[in-house]
Design a protein that fits this description.
single chain, about 350 residues, alpha/beta, two-stranded antiparallel ribbon, binds 2-succinylbenzoate, binds magnesium ion
């Protein structure tokens, strides 16, 4: 699916998104899920192709023709598969969609969500220059986004963030490094601490939870972990180590919505605010993210933007639009609450695999 605008991060540049869409047929119903793995192993070691391999050759044989009571039952059945969280989460999403459709309940209601619309922001990739970045931010602010995240990498960090802050002194602004730095870079990052940022997301490597603690003690700006938090246990480790003050929750990275909810609960018990991250999802994943973000401890704005920020033509009939208070409405229909535009889906389909 061609992206409306290229998305550049410290790990690469995406102009198209290869999406893995999962359909599960059961009891006369169809549940849809989206695996958020990308074509390349940049954000995660998983790719669209590895996820197809793991889903087809390992996950489906464990569930096909079997009774699956709920998401926990699914997690127990696939617990022998190490890692591959993005693959597992895609399938679990389809199971939630089925559960909701069978019970005639929205995911928000199944989760016990507490809001009908979710505060959102926009995540902006690295631009050609800081001048272009400021203009891009202006465009999104004009559209009504009240919170902006900019991607940073070495050589494109402090000056970019300073430029945006200069033109938008009151904007809710945060930065995301996607693991681009090491502890040797602390001195260069230090000026970020004076820009009144909401948070600094994942500056260090995924497996550097302890080093994030050492960084956090030197910064007044909250450090937020994304890539590092791959299970609910990792949230506990990070909290116990005081490695961050905020956690980004993505159901894909955590291995499923059930794991995302557990992580939310652990953070809530420890007064660590969370927010819902995004992976440039189609309408399917976007509906799932919005439902998740209705849980009470999702306190900061989500990385879930309107459909037209990502795709000219999405694969759901429903389009998500930005309200004038920088929120997006949560779907109220059964399950994910979205229907598939089969023609659009067909036009994008590269391959179909049936089990
Ligand atoms: O780190 O949050 C990230 C997209 C792909 C991979 C990693 C990330 C992102 C985003 C996009 O920031 C957020 C969105 O979906 O709008
Ligand atoms: Mg991130």
């Amino acid at each position: 699916m061609p992206l409306v605008s290229a998305f550049e991060t410290s790990f690469g540049r995406e102009t198209n998104r290869e999406c893995v869409i999962i359909e599960i047929h059961s009891e006369g119903l169809i549940g849809y899920g989206e695996c958020v793995a990308a074509r390349d192993p940049g954000y995660s070691y998983e790719t669209a192709q590895t996820s197809i391999h793991v889903i087809k050759d390992f996950i489906i044989p464990l569930i096909i023709g079997k009774d699956i009571k709920d998401a926990n039952d699914f997690q127990n059945k696939v617990s022998g598969i190490r890692g591959h969280h993005l693959a597992k989460a895609g399938v679990e999403m389809a199971i939630w969609d089925l559960l909701g459709k069978r019970e005639n309940k929205s995911l928000k209601d199944l989760f016990g969500g507490v809001r009908d619309k979710v505060e959102v922001g926009v995540s902006i990739g690295i631009q050609e220059s800081k001048e272009v970045l400021v203009k891009t931010v202006q465009d999104y602010v004009n559209q009504g986004y009240a919170r902006v995240k900019i991607k940073i990498k070495p050589t494109r960090d402090v000056e970019d963030a300073k430029a945006v802050r200069k033109y938008f002194p009151d904007l809710r602004l945060q930065v995301d490094a996607n693991s681009a730095y090491s502890m040797d870079d602390i001195k260069t990052l230090q000026p970020l601490d004076d820009l009144n940022l909401l948070l600094i997301e994942q500056p260090l490597f995924e497996d550097d939870i302890w080093d994030h603690h050492k960084l956090q003690v030197q910064f007044k700006t909250p450090i937020c972990l994304d890539e590092s938090i791959i299970t609910p246990r990792h949230a506990r480790y990070a909290i116990e180590m005081k490695a961050c003050k905020i956690i980004n929750i993505k159901a894909g990275r955590l291995g499923g919505l059930s794991q995302a909810i557990q992580t939310h609960d652990i953070c809530q018990e420890n007064q660590i605010p969370v927010w819902c991250g995004g992976m440039l999802e189609t309408g399917i994943g976007r509906a799932s993210n919005l439902a998740l973000a209705t849980l009470p401890n999702f306190i900061l704005p989500a990385d879930v933007s309107a459909s037209n920020r990502y795709y000219k033509k999405d694969i759901t009939n429903e389009n998500f639009v930005l309200n004038n208070d920088s929120t997006i409405n949560v779907s109220t229909g059964a399950g994910l609450g979205v229907t598939i535009d089969n023609e659009a889906l067909k036009s994008y389909t590269l391959a179909t695999i049936k089990s």
